[in-house]
Amino acid sequence: MDSGDGVVHAEITVTVNGAARRLRVDTRVSLLDLLREELGLTGAKKGCDHGQCGACTVLLDGRRANACLALAVAQDGAEVVTVEGLAGGDRLSPLQQAFLDEDAFQCGYCTPGQLCSATGMLDEAARGRPSAVTPPGDGPPELDDAEIRERMSGNLCRCGAYVNIVAAVRAAAGEAAR
Amino acid sequence: MRPFAYERATTAGAARAAHTGDAAYLGGGTNLVDLMRLGVAVPDRLIDVSGLAHDRIERRDDGAIVIGAGVRNSDLAADRTVRAELPVLSQAVLAGASGQIRNQATTGGNLLQRTRCPYFQDVTKPCNKREPGSGCAARDGENHNHAILGHTLTCVATHPSDMAVALTALDASVHLHGRDPLPLAELYRLPHDDASRDTTLAPGDLITAVEVPPPGMPSAYRKVRERASYAFALVSAAVALDVADGAVRGCRIALGGVAHRPWRAYRAERLLTGMPATEESFRRAALAEMENAEPLRDNGYKVPLTANLVCRTLSDLASGEGGRP
């Protein structure tokens, strides 16, 4: 649909945190801007808007992805989970609780992206997905600090809270393994 | 961002037919969307090819491995056959980008990503790749991460893909809709007098798959970068080596971060074949490949770095470290 000024709109349906939404979007709008500006879900953050910082990370069809690099118009039929959808009501996910327990943040701006990224990463590891530091062979990799650091390298923290972020992810990974 | 039309293609034929004028194919979008936001890419129509049925990795009866163009980078790197038989490919993919981006980026899109030369990405600077005839700001600019081989006065950019370097060492080809397959050696090009073209593809050509010949040699990928993860290569090497009775029976070496295309080190390969598989042979071959290097103001370090990297990767493979066939 061309609205006359060259701007093109399209209708899409996306499921966000479990609720189906029918939306009319400018084809240029990113998934990140759709979430923040149209749906009021400001958890996912706009850091660099170039896929370099990971602050916008969400789960897209179950996999972690940078919402700033995804065009909303291309997500018709997709299922999106944002940081607002990680908890079960008032009950935090084990990973969210671990971030609190380990004090895994300073300013908090990167935290929603860290949480969504680590949630997706723990699932990848459980499914036996390798990283650049995984030794050859099958079976789920052991999530030691080197694995966690490598797998979380797409999420920057300007405050430098990495030590506690790694500790929180390690704690959540240990809980998931039990 | 310039307004654009969007359509989702359901067949390769329909995608090809829809590609007219300033259209662009959309895969994972991890590079294209960024370039559109920067004003470097200004398509008037996006044809989304991510829904095409090019999402499988199959072994053909002749042993070749065929990777669909829509296979996500993370799925390619995790594939059991690829990990076991083409370790150089899995390692190269995992050495690139981040977990998020590998989940989004496709095989075809990875091959066609554009250079990360900062002057290409800055529309206020001259760049023959972005705007033919405007000049090259990198040639006398900040060029510590630019080419040392095969560059011209026109362009000193490097190709950014890790995966393409591994596939070049593996003698892979791309399948194109409605055209004969094209070896990667003929897909990529040096800038010559037209830096605007990264590849020999015609407008609208659509990559449907990548074909890797039956694996034969142990192989490994090694990448040097400015931080341990999530950075483009300063230099990288994809190496396959076959040693029998202490001598090199065959080898294939491709280099990343040194040229406008993945650089196949044919000279080193020729020199090594039949020679004793020793560090001395490896070093001599690696240094010979670097004889034609023409470093720029800031990137002379790449010459010894590349030679050392090739030598070390060959030595590791010869001593049994690195991946089996």
UniProtKB/TrEMBL annotation, chain A:
The record ties this protein, via PROSITE patterns, to:
2FE2S_FER_1, 2FE2S_FER_2
Q: Where is the 2Fe-2S ferredoxin-type domain?
A: 10-86
InterPro entries registered for this protein in UniProt: 2Fe-2S-bd (IPR002888), 2Fe-2S-bd_dom_sf (IPR036884), 2Fe-2S_ferredoxin-like_sf (IPR036010), 2Fe-2S_ferredoxin-type (IPR001041), 2Fe2S_fd_BS (IPR006058), Aldehyde_Oxdr_Iron-Sulfur (IPR052914), Beta-grasp_dom_sf (IPR012675)
Task: Name the domain of life this protein comes from.
Answer: Bacteria
Q: Metal-binding among the record's keywords?
A: yes
Q: Which UniProt keywords apply?
A: Iron, Metal-binding, Oxidoreductase
- By its UniProt entry, which Gene3D superfamilies does this protein fall under? 3.10.20.30, [2Fe-2S]-binding domain (1.10.150.120)
Quote the protein name from its UniProt record: 2Fe-2S iron-sulfur cluster binding domain-containing protein
From TrEMBL, chain B:
- Respond yes or no to whether keyword tRNA processing is given for this record: no
The answer on whether this UniProt entry bears the keyword Oxidoreductase reads yes
The cross-references to InterPro entries, in alphabetical order and at most eight, read: CO_DH_flav_C, CO_DH_flav_C_dom_sf, Diverse_Substr_Oxidored, FAD-bd_PCMH, FAD-bd_PCMH-like_sf, FAD-bd_PCMH_sub1, FAD-bd_PCMH_sub2, Mopterin_DH_FAD-bd
Which part of the chain is the FAD-binding PCMH-type domain? Answer: 1-217
Q: Give the residue range of the signal peptide.
A: none
Q: Which PANTHER family match?
A: OXIDOREDUCTASE, XANTHINE DEHYDROGENASE SUBUNIT C-RELATED
What is the protein name stated in its UniProt record? Answer: Xanthine dehydrogenase family protein subunit M
Q: Which organism is it from?
A: Actinomadura parmotrematis
